[in-house]
Amino acid sequence: AKAEEAEETQEVQEEPEKPEWMKDLGRDRMEVVMLGTAASVPGKYRNVSGIFVDLFDRGGIILDCGEGSFGQLLRKYGRAGGFAKLEALSCVWVSHMHADHHLGLLRVLSHRAALARQRREKGEPALEKLTVIGPPPLRKWLGIYQAIEEGIEIDFVDNARLFPGKEWVGADSGSVLSGLLAERLQIKITTVHVRHSCRDACGVALENTDGPPWKLVYSGDTRPCKELVALGQGATLLIHEATFENTLEDDAKFKQHSTTEEALRIGRQMGAYRTLLSHFSQRYAKAPVLSELEGANAGVAFDLMAINLSDLPRLPSLLAPLSRLCKLEGWQTEYEEEE
Questions:
Q1: What's the rounded Cα separation, in Å, for the pair 298 and 300?
Q2: Which residue among 20, 73, 297, 312 is least enclosed by CB atoms within 10 Å?
């Protein structure tokens, strides 16, 4: 048992080799902005799930869009910059139908519709239709909203259309694939079912098809899942939920979430270059149990944190100063006192 424990420790501490293509990489390729990093409900320090993938001149993608995501976009980029990012937005992907992962979508669509009306009034070129990818119930929910508010125009694609090996079928799917994902974004999007309490819950991989061969994988909400491991092989960055600390594994199993160690293990099984933990229970309002990440090639997500592709090698180096800050400010004991 001790030999196995030592082997596991050695695996955690091993530093993956920096990809050759990442050397001399510019800062205009891809950047991840965390719009929300908490589970279930918004809190004082963390909003609910939302990730903005900035592709710069190619546009942007939102992965999950919890309530307040648009407000976070404005806080990050300012009013003018936030609306510019919204205007350039190409796609919103939703993992599952729990409210903390999609309630912010309506506000995004409403503001996009307003921008489209402004363009028409000024005689400017029409705003490109937004692609929304998600579970089947989301289509019905959005259809009800479209009947209420004028000008909401989207192409909807079922997550199941993007499973590995599946053919794109349906009225709109082929044109969306060739016209938007492949040509404009130069991004391949693949989804898989994951293990969560919500039917149709999925994880996703974004792979760049033009230029640096980066691969971004996002777990959504899930227990450790072999399908996600297979999808994420060789990931450049894995963003994985870590709702609970390691001592609360029974809670994680009951609520179909992951612990810190389980999330890190998935990253190791993928061979992910870097792993970023997110979706923390509000019992860790300011920071999770950082001692559980010791020696890991990983980082901890905070709201409005921006991670440029070129900065990934430095991500684990933030853990030591963050741990010192937590001790200095007393963050590490707050959840212990609540227990």
A1: 7
A2: 20
